[in-house]
Amino acid sequence: MCGIVGSVSTKTNIIPILLDGLKTLEYRGYDSAGLSYLKNSKLIINKVKGRVKELEKNIEKDAFSNIGIAHTRWATHGEVNETNAHPHNVGNITIVHNGIIENFSKLKHKLEEKGYKFKSSSDTEIAAGLLDYYYKKYENIDKTIQKFMKKVDGSYAICMMINNIPNTIYVIKKDSPLIIGTNKNTSYIASDVPAILKYTKNYYILEDYEYGKITANNITIYDKEGNILNKQLKEYQGSTLTSDKGIYEHYMLKEIMEQKTTIRKTINPYINNIDDLLKLPDLTKYERIDIIACGTAMHAGLAAKYLFEEYTNTKCEVFLASEYRYQNNFLNNKVLSIFISQSGETADTLAALKKVKENKCDTLGIVNVKESSIARILDKVLYTEAGTEIAVASTKAYTAQVALLSVLILAHAYRKKSIKEEKILKILEEFRAVTSILNPILEGTKTYENIAKEIYEKSDVFYIGRGLDYALAMEGSLKLKEISYIHSEAYAAGELKHGTISLITKNTPVFASATNKKINTKTISNLKEVTSRGAKCYLITDEDIQDNSFEILKIKKVSMFLKPLLTIIPYQLIAYYTAKFKNCDIDKPRNLAKSVTVE
Ligand code: F6R
User: Fold this and answer.
1) Candidates 3.40.1580.10, 3.40.50.2020, 3.40.600.10, 3.40.50.10490; correct CATH number of 251-581?
2) pLDDT of residue 593
3) Ligand 1 mean position to 402 CA, how many Å?
4) Hey, what long-range contacts does 351-358 have (CB within 8 A, 24 or more apart)?
5) pLDDT tops 70 at residue 470
6) Closest atom of ligand 1 to CA, residue 299
């Protein structure tokens, strides 16, 4: 969601460091931005509604400072405006904050009774007020922070400057990521490692209820009782974030095109032969697989459910993490819980994972970001190798998740002998050829552009399918609505006539995929039902179908284990070109953020 950057140095001007970090993090939250620094011991705060480039224009030319904190916001409490943007200053305290202070209204009331007046509707200003109150009361920063952690409910990564302590930044962390980087004579703070990679690869990770005191040459991290911790300095191992769109107009298109390599890279260690396949974890002791995730990652789980149940005869349930964390989970030691996350920081997924861990049940993760909060807690992690995904709408992370889950399920099928070895070898061969299999789809962008031209002025679009194709319909529909703002819904193909078909009128676009020969004729009948009512239908299929009543997008015949990869790319490209015709901000759709670190 929001992004935090901070820096303190002996000599270096930290303002370009902060702006640079904010630009790197901007894809995570971008409704407003702010920066504060000390200029000759005077606190300067700049805030804008809008993007970091606007903030940059607002900052005094030649501004120089050795200490500062900065933020890009994704609004939780209070509308998007300059007043609600961070940093927030109350009395001696200036903070930027990621997360949500859940008991902010009670705290606000108490502080107001003590004479505090607040300017914004942000929960962060209340947090600043509370810190100021304790700091005035105890005249001791450690006691202030410890008391603050006891009194505040919710999640927070806080980066704080204090008026009369000019060379030090304090940080406090619970349930929102925060790291502290170090290099000669300069320290860095960020919500995400990429923000500081240009300056250092060495950093400490703060865990929940830890806080830190940071000067240019010294980093001290404490537990909630104030004991000094001996933390391990990490060295970043992942790829550095590239801000280069290459030949593409948008990151989303670049990331769609990258899929032929990111899928291959992700599954590469497992597809050469059966020995390689069996490097994947053995799931045979489990009677049930639960998959828990949010959004697109949950849709990857739905595709996996189909493959688990159909090809390994293993019961698989898929849960939205936001629901899972508050429901009865029927856990026991015969259940494996698989968590899927691109960012590895999604608050609901993280909370659901903590719940499973509290129940002492086994966990496995499919995660893209190494050393992320989710990756650090899981019993076992399989990493997708999608690289950094910058466009807010997930594409290459989704296909990497689906491909990795598919080979995991294939390994399970081998161990359970539910698919013959001969067939498994053939599927592995197809996986090895995935790049050339996907090429014709990725090279056929004109077709999808033409379809986008037909639908971009529509107000409603429907996606239908059965089984695995239904899971893909859900992801196709989400892609379209999140970046083009066209209302769209996905339905199980057989369900439409139980109510929703009343919304089909002349030329309503309906997309379907029919890639399972066992049930294709059923889906096609459902498509006929909507064409008869005037819908304009597009069908993705690997079958030879002659029918002029809908437009057919033919894909290659491959095993069911690869079909989701071939079906989803046309949906991604149609969504992309539709948003482009509508002149939408494709990489940064309104109201969204890349990493959802609040529940
Ligand atoms: C949609 C999208 C989101 C994410 C969801 C989970 O394109 O990207 O729906 O899939 O917020 O995020 P991660 O995978 O980071 O846990």
Assistant:
1) 3.40.50.10490
2) 82
3) 14
4) 351/175, 351/321, 351/325, 351/599, 352/292, 352/319, 352/321, 352/324, 352/325, 353/292, 353/377, 353/378, 355/324, 355/325, 355/329, 356/292, 356/329, 356/331
5) yes
6) 10
